[in-house]
Amino acid sequence: MSANLPPGMRDKLSPLIYLSNNWISRIGVFLVTAASVFWLFMLPTYLQGHSGASAYIGILLYLILPTVFFAGLTFIPVGILWKKRQLGPSAGVREVIGLPILSWQNPDFRKFLIFIGLATGANVVIAANLSYRAVEHMDSVQFCGQTCHVVMKPEFNAYQNSPHSKVGCVQCHIGPGASWFVQSKLSGLHQVFAVAFNTYERPIPVPVENLRPARETCEGCHWPDKYGGDKLRVIPHFSDAGEMTQTVLLMRIGGGNIAGSGIHSRHVGQGIKVRYAHTDRARQTIPWVEYSVRDTAKREYFAEKTTPADVSKMQIREMDCVDCHNRPSHNTELPERATDNAMAAGNLVATIPGVRKVALDVLKKDYTSTVQAEAEIPAAVKKALDGKASPADVERTAKGVLAIWQRNIFPEMKITWGTYVNNIGHNDYPGCFRCHDDKHKTQDGAKAISQDCNACHVMLAMEESKPKILKDLGMSDQ
Length: 478
Ligand code: HEC
Ligand code: HEC
Ligand code: HEC
Ligand code: HEC
Ligand code: HEC
Prior knowledge:
alpha+beta, 3-stranded antiparallel beta sheet, about 475 residues, 4-stranded antiparallel beta sheet, single chain, about 50% helix, binds heme C
């Protein structure tokens, strides 16, 4: 080997090799090879970018491994300097070491090569094993939902209770493709720093601005032409006396077909584009809407007192799935709706007199911490209902009320009732009526975005007890 190196280079290299034969430099070499080998193992999974790779492999690839790599790199010269100093400050390197040659015969060089060889071999074995596990782990819902425990607890709790509880966080938050993957890594890094230095915002602000366009993620599972058809919605309500009524709506969802009518067809159907301007971050105030079919037939709607000049100064967004389904997986509720749903599900025992009011009173109180609520809520419910039902029913109800609170309120993240609005519907939040208020009109005033009740749903029953329609459909055994 020595024979192939030009003498000038050999003269420079050999003292370095000799000097680097010390424990500090060796640790450095080990770290550099370890980081490089790990990196090579992780890279393919990372670049694939589909669900097999995780949001947080990036932390490892972009943050931890480079840190280790560069730390290793600095260890090497530090060790060389240290060794040189040990040998005596006045001695020139050449004199001290007498120019050993870079060849297999040179024991220092030999040791150095053997060490690199062994370190690399060991790293390959370790990395092959660990990186596989790390990838697997970081792709998991547990990692996203629980590693940053306090931060993601609200989303994780709601998610477990959602129709998407078997869909990985990364499938909506990142989705397929390498470029979004890299983009999410970069913002992921920022988030890691925010958590590490405790500078993240509480609550986490919405809408999530760097969320991938929903059509690229949602449509991976919900086929555009197929996610429609009319759908029956049965919504339970309870009176304070504990009597259940039901509202039955036939939702006119419609397909993605341009010829079709219905909710989906008119906003995300083929060739249909709805753009809107909003004046607040949360996109709740919408003074201008544009509807276009294949970019030709355009209609513009203006809220009262809004002019085209005003609109030119506003932020514009193209509507997609998450403008309506903004909480597909993190669905928080208001206390009344949560209580009605829990009563219908039997988590609160509806037959206990006054149970609804007790639950609402307890739920609407302020608790400064989760610990406090977990102690006070069950106790308060039990005290209020004591003697009105069997101890088992009271116990079940107390647990049910606490569960509602735990799913919706997170004092640690400053999340309380209504912090996150839900844009589906119009009863709890403005939702559809942000635009469908009959007051968004074309400039000639001839057409408005309709509030016609039957455009979106056919009302088959309105808070009826034992609605006849459910009996006719065979959906009720009463
Ligand atoms: C079905 C798709 C979907 C899944 C699965 C999903 N999310 Fe989300 N998530 C969203 C959407 C859409 C938003 C945007 C809400 C908005 O912009 O108003 C969001 C918002 C968030 C936010 C911002 C704060 C908030 O509450 O809006 C966090 C944090 C979050 N998700 C974490 C998670 C975690 C952790 C998981 C897995 C346990 C997860 N998400 C799974 C769709 C999803
Ligand atoms: C990895 C697949 C997957 C992705 C990605 C996904 N979903 Fe879903 N979605 C499902 C499954 C599975 C269900 C449950 C179907 C069922 O219960 O019939 C579901 C159910 C739904 C429902 C019906 C909920 C209900 O109460 O019946 C809506 C609405 C929905 N998804 C919207 C979205 C939106 C919006 C996105 C994108 C932000 C999205 N989904 C992304 C798989 C997915
Ligand atoms: C204009 C608002 C709006 C937009 C935009 C929208 N949806 Fe919906 N979607 C609805 C409403 C309203 C329902 C009925 C929900 C209900 O009453 O439970 C619904 C229902 C659904 C369902 C459940 C269907 C079923 O039969 O159970 C899925 C899945 C769904 N949407 C997916 C999507 C996807 C994917 C997109 C984006 C391509 C999208 N939606 C865009 C309003 C919207
Ligand atoms: C950003 C504004 C905006 C929001 C929010 C919005 N829509 Fe629309 N919607 C429109 C526009 C614009 C049209 C088409 C008007 C036209 O035909 O020129 C439309 C049309 C419709 C139609 C067809 C009406 C008809 O008479 O044919 C239905 C149904 C509908 N929307 C349902 C909903 C539902 C349900 C929601 C809430 C989940 C919703 N929309 C939220 C802007 C909006
Ligand atoms: C732009 C579409 C749209 C229009 C117009 C509309 N609704 Fe709705 N409505 C919805 C959606 C979406 C939901 C939510 C369904 C769900 O919870 O999934 C809803 C839910 C409801 C509910 C059930 C509320 C509950 O929780 O019990 C009632 C009642 C209702 N609407 C009445 C009306 C009436 C009355 C009108 C006419 C003034 C009207 N809606 C117009 C879209 C619309």
